[in-house]
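Input sequence (304 aa), recorded before submission:
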Amino acid sequence: MATLSLIGAPTQAGTYRRGCIMGPAALRTAGLVETLEELGHTVAEDRDLAPDPVTLPDADFGPAHHVGDVAGWTRAVRRAVAGALRNGHVPILLGGDHSIAAGSLAGVTDIDPGAHVLWLDAHPDFNTMKTTVSGNLHGTPVALAAGLAGAETIYGEPITPLDPTRVTMIGIRSVDPDERALLRAHGVVVHDMRVVDEFGVGHLVRDTLRRVEAAGGHLHVSLDVDFLDPDIAPAVGTTVPGGATVREAHLVMELLHESGLVGSLDLVELNPFLDERGRTASLMVELAASLFGKTIMDKPTQAW
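Predicted structure, token format:
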């Protein structure tokens, strides 16, 4: 069983829709702590962070906005995630919009420079502060963690850049043109929903896990609500039709658990203001439970 650190980052600075600030509280209200403890895990800490005070004028970074706020949250999250890992805990970052993953990714590579990332999202979030069209920095965390344009501004100090070739994205269905070029240039493995439909999500996850195991190192999982189809998970401000089903998402989580490779997790972009009687928050808690060992029936781990 694992010792867990639940780290809340209640922010909406990286998005244009209000509501993600309530995400960590909604996950707790949906029973996240109790669910993990019932599975036998120890919750060593459960706290919300406050951002570092950072003042950066948006006029210097247009079209990006709320740059100082995002930088402040990123720096605080980075320290907290790295600190949890140093203590031998599994950090679970509760969001908050996806810009906070710039902090969790940097915190992970501070501890393990060879870390791998499984990015479960409708969007690659591989824009830079120069290529973003919307200016919303929840579309930039992977590029920032890889050290692309803007990283020095957001982090305020050097990072160990994430190796983009160690990033696998599954569920992608909305990519900006400049972002597509960056993904190809940097060798990110991108499985859009056509690939999921053709080969099945189980095959793609197993293939990813084989590569991670062969290379060794830490696996960080970043789960965005919009990885899921909006019909089953409406509480997100960036809905894109055609996402993962409940069955597909649970399969992903169960395979990740069986691998024993996951060392950290993001649960992000939950916007309770857009939810329907808590159904999305409850589903995210159920998926976290699957990742941490909940199954319908106990079964032996298979070797693939």
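Checked by second reader. The longest helix spans residues 67-86.
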